[in-house]
Amino acid sequence: xxxxxxxxxxxxxxxxxxxxxxxxxxxxxxxxxxxxxxxxxxxxxxxxxxxxxxxxxxxxxxxxxxxxxxxxxxxxxxxxxxxxxxxxxxxxxxxxxxxxxxxxxxxxxxxxxxxxxxxxxxxxxxxxxxxxxxxxxxxxxxxxxxxxxxxxxxxxxxxxxxxxxxxxxxxxxxxxxxxxxxxxxxxxxxxxxxxxxxxxxxxxxxxxxxxxxxxxxxxxxxxxxxxxxxxxxxxxxxxxxxxxxxxxxxxxxxxxxxxxxxxxxxxxxxxxxxxxxxxxxxxxxxxxxxxxxxxxxxxxxxxxxxxxxxxxxxxxxxxxxxxxxxxxxxxxxxxxxxxxxxxxxxxxxxxxxxxxxxxxxxxxxxxxxxxxxxxxxxxxxxxxxxxxxxxxxxxxxxxxxxxxxxxxxxxxxxxxxxxxxxxxxxxxxxxxxxxxxxxxxxxxxxxxxxxxxxxxxxxxxxxxxxxxxxxxxxxxxxxxxxxxxxxxxxxxxxxxxxxxxxxxxxxxxxxxxxxxxxxxxxxxxxxxxxxxxxxxxxxxxxxxxxxxxxxxxxxxxxx
Length: 559
Ligand SMILES: [Zn+2]
Description:
By secondary structure, the protein is of the alpha/beta class. 30% of the residues lie in helices and 20% in strands. The chain contains 16 helices and 24 strands. The longest helix has 18 residues, at 233-250. The radius of gyration is 24 Å and the shape is globular. Residues 98, 100, 258, 324, 366, 397, 459 line the site of zinc ion.
C-alpha cells in the first residue's frame, strides 16, 4: 500500500454539516461536540474485550466517544476537524514498560536502531560526518550489535572509521560489550600507548603497544563514553526535544524510565521544563536510581528514601518510586551466568527494600537468573510479613529465567513483571552464554499463560533498539533485528499489543488515563501505515505511524 502523507488524510469540514439536516435525536448535546473526529478506520481499542471500532471523537485531551463512523459523525460541529482514516488502523499509543531514554538527552546520538546492514550503518555515519561541526563527537552508545547485520557481521576497524571521519571523533559502542573508536576519538579521549586499562575494561593494543581503536568490557565502554564532553543545558533540551520526536515517530507516547548509571537532576530537568510548559510530547514516569555497592553507601541512600515524595508531578512527567538497582553486588547480568547469592549482600539489599516498604514506595528490581529471582522473592516474602508490600505494585524487570512457581509467588505479593526484548540485538550472544536455555529467555508464552500482570518494553537505549514495533515483532516471531530466530516462547500479536499498551498503563499507575482507546481516556494513539492485525508476522517490525497523537495533540506526522 502506498504511504499516504497525512496532509491528504485531513479534510476540513467546517460548515459542511448544517445541524438542520440531521435528525434531532442524533444531534450531539452541548459539550459533546468534538474538537477532532477520526472516521472510516479500523480502531483497535485494546479495551477489555479487544473491541474493534471504526471511529472516535476527541475533545480537548480526551476521547469522548468510540463507535461507528455514523455515530461519531454526530459529534462533529462547525469547528470539528475531521480526519478521514481511509481504512487505516488506529491503535493506542505504545507505552514502553521499562527503558532508559532519560539518559539519551546527554548526547545527540547516531542511532543504528533496526539498521540491518553494516553498509547502511556506514552510510549513516558518513552522512552524519558531513553535517557535523569540525571536531564534534559522533557517538552511537549502544542499541545495536554486529549480529544484526545481514551483509557482514563485523564491527568497524579504525582505518575505515578514519577514512570516513578524519576530523571528527567517532565512538560506536555495541551493546555494552565493546566500542570502536577512530584516531580522532583516541586522541580526543587522551588514549595512547601509556593509557592503562580501566577497571573491568581492556584497551586493545597491537604488537607495538599502539591502541587498535577497540575497547572491550563494560568498564571499558563506560570509560570511553565518559570522555565525550557534555554540552550545556540548552543542548540537553534540544537533544530531549529531538529524541522525543524520534520516539513519537516510532509510536512511543509514554514510558517508565529506569534512569541509569550516573543519573543526575540534570537529566530530568529538560523533561520537567517541557512538561511544565505543556511541550513534552510523551509521558514519562520515572524511578529514582541509586546503585549502592557497600554497606556505607546503603547508609547514605536510606535517608534519601525517607525524604522521597513521589507522585507530585502531572500526567506528563511524574516520579513513581525507586529502581532498578536495589544493591549493586546482587544485580545479575544477562550475559553472565553466575548470580551472587551471598547472604551478607542480600542483607544490605534488604535494608534498602525494607526502607521502601516501610514508606509505601514502589520498587522495581532488575533480576534475571532463576536462583537470583528466588533470593529476591525470599527477601520480599520476609519483608512482607513485617510490612505488607501487596498493593505497592512492586515489580521485577527482565526475569529472563523466571519459573512458573516464581510467577505464582510474585502474584501472591501483588507484583508485576516488566519483560524486555533484549535478545533483539543480543540473542546470538545469549545463545553463546546460556546455550539452549536461551530459546526460552524470556519465556513470553509461559508468562502470558501464568496470568500475571506483565508489560512489554525495550530496556533501550544501550542494550536494545528503541523501536516499539521491534518489541512487538520479537514477542510474536522470536527473531532478532536482522532475522536470526532466537526465541521459541512467542505469543500472539494481540497479547503483545495488550502488554505494550493497557498492561503498561497499569505498571505506570495510569490505568484510568492510558493504555486503550476508550471514552474518558487520554487521546494517545497511532494511525498506522498498515494493519497491525493483518500484516504478515515478519512485517510487524516495519510498521510505522503516519500520525502520532498525545493528549489529543498531533505530535508527529509522516512526511
Ligand atoms: Zn533496565
